[in-house]
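User: what does the whole thing look like in 3D?
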Amino acid sequence: MELNEKKNEQKFEKPRYWKGPEELNASYWSDDAVQTRNAQEFYDKPIETLEKIEAMDKSGVSRRDFLTVMGASMAMASFACARRPVNKIIPYVVQPQELTPGIPLHYASTCKECAQACGILVKTREGRPVKLEGNESHPMNAGKLCARGQSSILNLYDPDRLRQPMKGVKGGAKNGANWAEVDALVVAALKEAKKVRIVSLSESGDSTRRIMKEFMAAFVDAKWIEVDPIGMDEVADGQAESYGTHVFPDYAFDRAEMVVSFGADFLGTWGNPVENGKRWATTRKLAGKKDDALSKLVVFEANMSITGASADERFPIVPGNEVAAALALAHELIVTQKRGKFASVQEVSSLLSGSVEEWISKAGSLDRAKIKKIAEELWNSRGKSIVVGHGSIALQSVVNLLNSTLENDGKTIDGTADVVGYNASTKGLVALQAELEAGQVDVLLVHRANPVYFLPKGGEFGEAMKKAKLVIAVTDRVDETAEFADVVLAENHYLESWGDAHPKASLHSLQQPTIAPLFDTRSMEDILIGWTRGGVKAGGLLSTIASGPKNSFHDYLKENWKQTLYPVHGKGKAFKDFWELTLQKGILESKGGAPRERAFKPGSLKFAKDSIASLKGLSLGKKKMGPRIEGSGFALGIYSKVSVADGRSANNAWLQEMPDPISTITWDNYLNIGPASAAELGIETNDVVLVSGEGASFEIPVKVQPGILKGVVTLAMGYGRTRAGKVGSLVGKNAFKLAAFSGERGLLLNQGTVTISKTGMKYQLAAIQEHHRIMGRPILNEITLDEYRKDPNAAMEVEPPVKMAKVPTLWDAPVDYSKNEYRWMLGVDLNSCTGCGACVIACQAENNTPVVGRDRVRQSREMHWMRIDRYYSGDETNPTVVFQPMMCQHCENAPCETVCPVVATSHSDDGLNQMTYSRCVGTRYCQNNCPYKTRRFNFFDHWKDYKDTMNMVWNPDVTVRSRGIMEKCTFCVQRINESKSKAKDNKTKIKDGELRTACQQTCPTDAIVFGNVNDKESQISKWISNPRTFRSMEILNTRPAVNYLTKVRNAEGEHHAGGKEHGHG
Amino acid sequence: MNSGLRKFALFGVVVVAALLWQVLPRTSNQGYEPEQPIPFSHKLHAGKFNIDCRYCHTGAYKGAHATVPSVSTCMNCHSVVYPESPWMQKIKKAYAEGKPIEWVRIHELPDHAHFNHKRHVSKGVSCETCHGNVKEMDKVYQAQPLTMGWCLNCHRGFETPKYLKKSIYPENPDSTDPVAPFTCNTCHY
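Assistant: Here's the predicted 3D structure for the full assembly of 1254 residues, as structure tokens:
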């Protein structure tokens, strides 16, 4: 303590890396509570736990009672295992020819978790899907998947899924029914119906679209409304206004030297984040030479997203005012610098003649000098840059102007290759609600969509639904919208159904069932065929198939492909061969045309002109609260998380427990508020505030989030579901209730203003990174491109040093692994890691890591084998962010191994730190001694929570751990052993790239590489010789097997350290 | 301490030890010989008729599990051979109804130990080495302890059967060098 006090007297130096903005104040470090906490060796328990422990002390259980009970239970426990259970072997009656128990089968299919429709390979064991991986030959995702895609397999086994159709739901009866009953009921209504409305999620499959249209042909007035609360349709709307074609263009981020994003979180939630991430990351690899190319990413955004975190330059702005920032940039480029062909176009310059000061202040006081520089840089990389934006047509028109000025259109932006799947928006719901209220709709069919949940006044929509003669919901649970339906038809999971997708103009893919339906459910398309068979007068192929002997959607799908795609793509092949080959590959690709430039219509800029006047700006008046949104209150931005997204899979426990990449918080949403606003309001993280908007108000905990403008708050959507199921119901608060809704533009997520008042209550958010402290240790490293250009080795010359020439040691000479056949190591490129978290979920799915729940995360008992640590540096108003995936480092001099009293953890010949569950007695010494905090202890039998069908998700190749056992990352040793076995069969060694860990396999940006360093040609060997390579806390002489590649930010000067490390710890 | 008390204490220790012996789980199931739903005789099939093990246990050379044959495998022969037997009636019924036969598992390793048949079979380990002389067994029982020590004694080369030593170290069949890996994660993961 004395030492600490002495240090406090010294001048306070801000730490280089910090986890929360409070760490930047001297007063934080001198706070008694903090000093006590830092002096402790272990993480302090959350408040509630301490209260519980206190209560337990008073409960009167004496030591003697405790021993009695323990003795008795031990005796009982011994009796329980006195006899081995008699287990059965139940072979097949007729074993399928392709199947050998214990050997997995893979099927190519299509992920339908969201509208992007990435290609997947479904790994099945004994007829049961156990893991999803990207389809390597798919041109979009090339073997990669996002966290949502990885976790969608858990939805298949969700025990809360509907197991049969229901009727009488609206009246609250919720009677289970059989299909014949509900079909008869629906068909009777459909035969009479004239006006039919269908509401569904976005659907890109040609066959599904065709069957839907043929079904609608049976009615006088039928309309199909595709809805998506995140709505990216405005990009296509903007394209239509500017270029005359309604397309979502293909963005070649891999060819862009510079990317400017206005609120588009393209690495996390915008467009196809897997494809975007994969492409963008190819421009972020540095092989170690001085003149290596590195792209630049500039982001203007309100909320701190993972795209903003990966940005080289980030501008916090007011949510909804992206267009003002875009206009300021366009003005600088076209008017001031007179660049491009539009500089002399009257229509353009008249628009841009407006007040730049006003735009700059409305966007959020942008730095004009920086804007000037960005404009110059953009011009220098014209034809090789991309500008993207998320939101209004007004913004899109300016973005399109910028792209056309910079000659990007036709080069990096391909407007001729339509990316399908963005037809959905919420616009159509206004008209539908009016029709419903007028009682005009005979039958309303809602397929999976959940407007009652995501509309700000969803309850009113629900009431309006009651006025339809018959409301049918086709979904997998009685959700918020299905509550208002007459019949709820239980739908298959996508892994149980046939289907297809058409994600891009030149790409078709097939979706095949990999398991028979678990329950008495049907696919949407089969339901439509059933109704047609029942007597609904549908047209075209639907009626042909329905009246034929082969009348499933499988037959329909085949017939549709035979009619439409086979004649074009199957020349010279029998249809059977064409079909089977396509099914095996999963995709059908045709050659798209070369991109060509389109003429920009300056007329579309009128949208920007119209909107700019109505934008609310930050008022800089001398109000007590400082800069606020005009009028009163805070500007609210509603964003989508990479995990829960729009809340459609809110009942997925993997997603709920996936830490948010930025806040590292699990299980809840929270109001993000900038440090400046928080200081003024006198609130801090975990304080509960009352947030009130136009339509709703609720209490919600606060998270003080660096990088958010003063006067701005942000809130994640997808939470606050009321009918999601046991896991997802009543988790967090429903942000949609604070959104605005307009008939023209649908749901407006970034237009609201809210007021905030303190409640004085506390709510502990379950954040995982708060469990660990940095203590000024050299955990990670980051430099600027400037430094790198001067000397690629600059990465090692930082303070405190990440490397030491000679480390003092008590150890004998390190073990020589070079003679062994294999020496496994992992590399993580911090430069291409976007923090998306796909690896975390892939690891969870592969390695049977359980979900523990909010309370246990608060107690730092989460079980994820890998986590993504997020470190801030620089100024708290706009910090830079580094993500660091952290898993067991497989140290050669492993601190855990030396303290294990039973040798349950030891080192293998190929350099793995192995964990032998059967030896572990649970002392937790290893966990305490691990400097990386990557070991996880099973405080409970978590597997017991995987009830009912959930049991089927376990990977049979990995032991399911029981209570009292330590566990941690194994480098996917089951995959290593499988590959070794294959190599032995072929009498070879494992080749580089043949064996991939689950995290590496799914990483969209190829930021993780795993391999054998004794093979000098392997990719990992090359990474290790990269001058950017360092090992976390190498100075501890743990000799980790995980190699990190220093983050290089495309910025000038030196990495802005706030000074040297703070000395505490 | 007087001798009476000492005897009493000794008696106590014996009683406690005996109780523990009864109560605590066995580490090995050696000798386990349960009744099967159909008294299938390996002595007859594998012994007298000399049917190859792999005719029924098809997985042994393909993957981790040797696998117990499906009902259809029995029917390959028994649709014509000895069809009138009551046991065959049972098989036929199972086949017709599509209801599998539930055999009682004899050889079972704990969940945290992964054993791969293919690796052993392809290295030349004979079935009898671990499963005993099945050809002589009317009713199959667990012939070997199948404990970790027993596994390791072979892997480390201490008690490796001679025929394996010969095939692995043809130059020096008396070697006591290891014949297979024995790091923990060979089996435990």
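In plain terms: Residues 669 and 732 of chain A are 5 Å apart (CA to CA). Confidence is low (pLDDT under 50) at residues 1-9, 619-631, 1057-1065 of chain A.
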